[in-house]
Amino acid sequence: IGDDGMWGEGTIGYQMFALQALTAVMEVAARQGVDLWGFDHARIKMPFDANFRFAYPDGTAPGINDSGRVNFSDWSGMVYDYAYLRYGDPRYARLVNACPRQIVISTGVYYPTRVFTKLEEPAEIHYPSTVFKDLGYAILRSGGVYALLDYGPHGGPHGHPDKLNFILFAAGDELGGEPRMHRYEDPLHGAWTKATVAHNTLTVDERSQSACTGKLLMFADAGPLKVMRAEASSAYPGVVLDRTLVMTPGAIVDLYRGESTRAHIWDRTFRYEGELDGWVEPAADAASLGDKFGYELLKIAARAPAEKEVVFGWKSKKAVWQVALAGAAGQEAVKALGPDKEQMLVARQKGTRADFGAALRVEGWGGAIASSGFLPAENQGIVAYKMEQDGVETLVVVAHRKGDWTAGNWTSDARVLCAQAKDGVVQRVFIGGGTHAECGGQKLSTTSAQNSYAERVDGVLKIAAADSRP
């Protein structure tokens, strides 16, 4: 059992499968005087607890890799009867109360219910942002918004080639999740469920990624500006993928770069639940963007230049949300229909480098995005992006090299800088992996490179929190 407490393949369905098998074995052993429940400081409790740290705010969990979205309150959650009786953890009470009850062993569950009275449930429990280091899942939480960046190991036979995939839960539901989990015997399992283009990430030259492990470069959640950044350098030969996600109080800024010494076709997939605004049904003989690796299953509904900002919207039964795609030279926006009727957007660029910028906001979380886009490059290796929402200007700068830089009236050595200003006055700043940041005569500095968060209090901009994590 790793320190994450999670099944090593990163597949929550198999996490529950393993707990069912372990529970049966541990109960048999306990009746023979062998206490595996308490062995090694009750290490077996970690997989039970990890599910809560991983779960969405509604108690379900994302079906990453070969797993559908999991509801812990179904029959698989009956293992919590046994964990509750062993550990008495009050957090387990809600699952025990919600899971089905049975008094005899069935073909689906090979152990009977142990708790028949309703347990007292604790007050609402809030789980913090977290990183599952063994699996390579970084999770930011803010209220009911949950954002996951998948950067870690491939996941063995059940892994998907989807490095730097992004999963979103907001407005009470999963808005951007995994593709449909087709069963193993279904040809669509290999052709679509596991294809890179079916995920919320980046493909190169219309091919799926290679199995690889990425690296978390930054994770910070000390203030209202929450940041995570990761890279993958072996998903494609000679290519580096780099993704930065910034969660503000009203939106998520998503900056994704692909870079190589050779020219490539770069496709950034936006795959969200629901109906896409301005949707046009593809013609019966609609072409596709490619002929293999899942591309052959995409049907083009519309395509148009996207050299200027383009705003798209999706609507599901529970939520309405908006994606503002920043303009880029030669960029094309393609509306496409997937094999499971998903209405997708693919942003395509060509060249040795591609920068995709987007701002995402959910109705009721933040106001409409008034404007967004990249700023002119002032220094090599620096990407600057600005978004205006609810009268607040948000600047995000990502440095793809070390050292000082200048962008958007700021000078800094931060690897990621995020600053918010209202009426031209800076209100809050995040300095990631740097020692200083200056703007308009105001200077913030620390003695060593770290993640710092500053806010304006009584008219003065001061560092309010700092940590030395990557």
Layout of SSEs?
Layout: H1 12-30, H2 39-42, H3 45-54, E1 60-61, E2 70-71, H4 79-87, H5 93-98, E3 130-132, E4 137-142, E5 145-150, E6 165-170, E7 173-176, H6 187-193, E8 202-204, E9 215-220, E10 226-232, E11 239-247, E12 252-270, E13 275-276, E14 299-305, E15 310-315, E16 320-325, E17 332-337, E18 343-362, E19 369-374, E20 382-389, E21 392-399, E22 405-407, E23 410-412, E24 416-422, E25 425-439, E26 442-457, E27 460-467
Antiparallel strand pairs: 1-2, 3-4, 4-5, 5-6, 6-7, 8-12, 9-10, 10-11, 11-12, 12-18, 13-15, 14-17, 15-16, 16-18, 17-18, 19-20, 20-21, 21-24, 22-23, 23-25, 24-25, 25-26, 26-27
Give an account of the 3D structure.
With 470 residues, the chain is mainly beta. It has helices spanning 12-30, 39-42, 45-54, 79-87, 93-98, 187-193; strands at residues 60-61, 70-71, 130-132, 137-142, 145-150, 165-170, 173-176, 202-204, 215-220, 226-232, 239-247, 252-270, 275-276, 299-305, 310-315, 320-325, 332-337, 343-362, 369-374, 382-389, 392-399, 405-407, 410-412, 416-422, 425-439, 442-457, 460-467. The chain has six helices and 27 strands. The strands form four sheets. Strands 8, 9, 10, 11, 12, 13, 14, 15, 16, 17 and 18 form an eleven-stranded antiparallel sheet that branches. Strand 11 and strand 12 form a beta hairpin. The longest helix is centred in the first third of the chain and has 19 residues, at 12-30. The mean pLDDT is 94.
